[in-house]
What we know:
Oligomer: heterodimer
Largest sheet of chain B: 2 strands, antiparallel
Shape of chain A: elongated
Helix content of chain B: 40-55%
Distance between the termini of chain A: 15 Å
Number of strands of chain A: 2
Strand order of the largest sheet of chain B: 1-2
Amino acid sequence: xxxxxxxxxxxxAFERFNIHHRIQHIMMFTSFILLALTGLAIKYNESxxxxxxxxxxGGFDSMYRAHLVGAVVMLASCAYHLLYLLVYAVWRRExxxxxxxxxxxxxxxxxxxxxxxxxTKQRPEFDRxxxxxxxxxxxxxxxxxxxxxxxxxxxxxxxxTRYFPRWLIDSxxxxxxxxxxxxxxxxxxxxxxxxxxxxxxFPMSRVWLDGKISEELMEEEHPKELRRLLxxxxxxxDEG
Amino acid sequence: MYWVHARRLLFTAGLALTxxxxxxxxxxxxxxxxxxxxxxxxxxxSITFDGQKISLYVDPEAYQSSVHGAxxxxxxxSEIDGIPHSNPIYGDELSIAVSKSCQNCHRxxxxxxxxxxxxxxxxxCADCHGSHSIERVDSPTSTVYRTNLDDLCAKxxxxxxxxxxxxxxxxxxxxxxxxxxxxxxxCHGTHDIRPFTDPESRVSEENLPTTCAQCHGEANANxxxxxxxVTRAPTGPGAPMYYTYKFFIWLTxxxxxxxxxxxxxxxxxxxxxx
Lengths: 240, 274
């Protein structure tokens, strides 16, 4: 059996994210940045930053409009994703379970930590989604649920008071302001570290743009998936 | 033809006469004001009343550019009967005397004001509007402009009332110049403020839903289920906000700590292998 060279593996690309995934992600991160920038100005209204930003937008009311536009885009990306999942399930007559947490993820977590602490020589081998990626995915679900839910309540307090007492609306605002900080910190520390500051593809992985990932990177990051894909193509994967 | 001409002539003559009288009045006002300014533009002019030093200085430029700049000083200071002033008054007596003269020209507002809580506790027009540099209320530097109201009311009101407003979405929006969000006076009214326990108050249990509905569309009874001026506190009406806040703070601290530890372990691994 002939092993392919590193160059060959670098050349050969696999589609990791299709056009729908990529559009959803672009909608998500552009609206996230807009929401974070304008939201921080509202939260820290006394800061010089808030004054500068409101000036750029030409006043608070238009800055707040921009925040709402961001909210609509983000909710739309979420709706798009759910619709995509639904259509996919009906089309393929199967539900993709690749992103559901499994006991293997817990094992992978501990193995990854042990590996990095030098307690084992064996690096965990990930399938299509590593436990970190699964965490990111579900964190966004939780984030959208809390931010979208509380955001809609404080956007439409008139409608909300049909069903909820006033104090719940005030609490929704607390939730909105604090969960936002969690989301911003998580994105800036965790996501940036994972997808930008990773030495393997610094300054950034291009997968969000063209959806492609090289066989070389697949081998390192998603070896189990690679082997499965190669077998499906009738090729013999390199072992280990 | 002739008549039309005559009427036009008459009209012109009348106009000229009116203008002459008006400018005569303005000149009188101006000379009278100048006479008062002659002494009162002295920055050191002051007296001691009730153990306190009171400055009698009036900034002529600020006065002239104020909304009342064209009026003689005595339009408000009817207590001044000549020079030197024979019976000077100060303190509350002066406040009340001057506020009475606002009534002469601002009748409707004064009537409205007389039924408010502020009138009954002795707050005067000047406490909110100032005296010699009153501006149009829609000027951003006016003491009663929407973005300056929290500071104005904070001269006498303090604690939760002010803090909760500054923390609220309304307060934050207004502090950044929002023209839409609620100010103290969109909820409470301006010259007819009443205690919230008074059924006629705009923020009484009966009226609150309609007050909020001015901007929020629906006058639901749920608007009253909770307090407006409340800040996070472990007990009392601030409790739901307090515990929501605490939950998310700890969730954030916990999650970020775990993530950072995970990153550090990976970086340590990378360093060891390098």
